[in-house]
Amino acid sequence: MRKLILLLFAIMPAIAFGQGFQVNLHGQKQIGMGHTGTGLLQDGASVLFNPGALAMLPQNYVQAGMSPLLFKSDFNPSGTTDQFRTKNKIATPFTAYGVWGPKDARWKIGLGVYTPYGGLTDWGQDWAGKYSLESLNLKAIYFQPTLSYRVTDFLSLGAGFVYNHGTVDLTRAIPVSNSSGQDGQAELKGNGHGFGWNAGAFFKTNVGLTIGLDYRSQVNTTVKNGDAIFKVPSSLQSSFPQPNTFTTTLPLPSTSSIGLGYKPSNKWTLAVDVNFTKWDVYKTLGFDYAKNTPTLQDTYSPRNYKNGWSYRAGAEYKATDKIFVRGGGGYVTTAVNDGYVTPEAPDANRYYLTAGLGYKVTKNLDLDVSFEYEHLDARTQTNIESQLSGTFKTNVYIPGLSLAYHW
Predict the structure, then answer these.
(1) The CATH number, out of the four listed (3.90.1580.10, 3.30.43.10, 2.40.160.60, 2.60.40.10), of the domain defined by the range 2-406
(2) Which has the least CB within 10 A, 37, 143, 148, 363?
(3) Are 1 and 239 in contact (CB under 8 A)?
(4) What span, in angstroms and rounded, lies between the C-alpha atoms of 73 and 136?
């Protein structure tokens, strides 16, 4: 029984750290161009991509967007022909940015509200991995006030404070049955917060090349008094004390980015970004439970993640004074080592393709749409804790829409 409980709480790390939950949907123009933006001047999304670029923006911005995300994963248990699939549920990552500064001033202030982590996964109650996961609803919302200053005509710097508020609701089956043969169930619910910062520098050259550097700090997010809810036969209730809570701290890793932008003509814009995410800070996760029993003890679960890279490229073509066509793609390396793949984040190396279209509704109003397709390499794994063994195959489909008003 003790092993059962350890496995129950050891799954929480994947919720926060699986690459599949690092959303990266932070602006429709940027998505359309393969998620490039560190070395570009495009719109208010520079609050996130590179705070140093804000002071170079020629206008002020208020904008908001949403990118509904459909995550589709299949699982084939080892040694069988069975196939289990996630249900069709749609997550709704969103962004909102504001940028303002007096005309001709060297400074601008900004505010970003965005969702860098999130996921909505539902495998149902009758699949092979139900003792690892039934459903997951995760939301992490970052709030980032920002200040940017133009040091010279070719260099600007910026930085922002980050406050993170996250919520999670996860359910899984427990291999104990009541008199009707129904499995027990555990639900983990909680919310937490953390603090960090985002800083960047932006350089212009006289040959049409722009260069951006950005660093987003590690954010240690603490969940206090999260609810651990158990539905078990009455004969086992003393081993699962109710009500019960838990406390844990999750280190969301830092990200370093460099980006280049280039305009070979007044119609074309080209961009590349390289991102390094320091996932190796996530080695062990511990849970401190308010109420312990001989069965339910505090747990310390190894994770031993590795650092990850992403490589991005994109282009924009100005078809007319009102219509902009975008395209791009990229490759992302997984942070999840062999033996740690879970159904919450069946992560693997992946590639993605993006497309976008921009339309100037009026002189001051932009409408932007985007679409992204992600394909994760098939990955056959046996989890070292749950012993769930099989092959995951995953694809992700993400349309998006935003409006931006600028003056």
Answers:
(1) 2.40.160.60
(2) 363
(3) yes
(4) 14
pLDDT at site 21: 59
CB 84 within 8 A of CB 346: no
Beta bridge partners of 381: 390
Mean pLDDT of 20-46: 91
Amino acid at 344: E
Got the DSSP string for 235-289?
GGGGGS-SS-EEEEEEEEPPEEEEEEEE-SSSSEEEEEEEEEE-GGG--EEEEEE
- Residue 221's pLDDT band (cuts 50, 70, 90): confident
160 beta partners: 146, 198
Task: Spell 356-370 as b/e; 16+ CB within 10 A means b.
Answer: bbbeeeeeeebebbb
Count of C-beta atoms within a 10 Å radius of residue 2: 13
Burial of 273 (0-12, 13-18, 19+ CB in 10 A): buried
State the distance between the two ends of the chain, measured CA to CA, in whole angstroms: 63
The confidence score (pLDDT) of residue 172 equals: 87
Confidence band, pLDDT 50/70/90 cuts, at residue 329: very high
Q: What is the pLDDT of residue 314?
A: 98
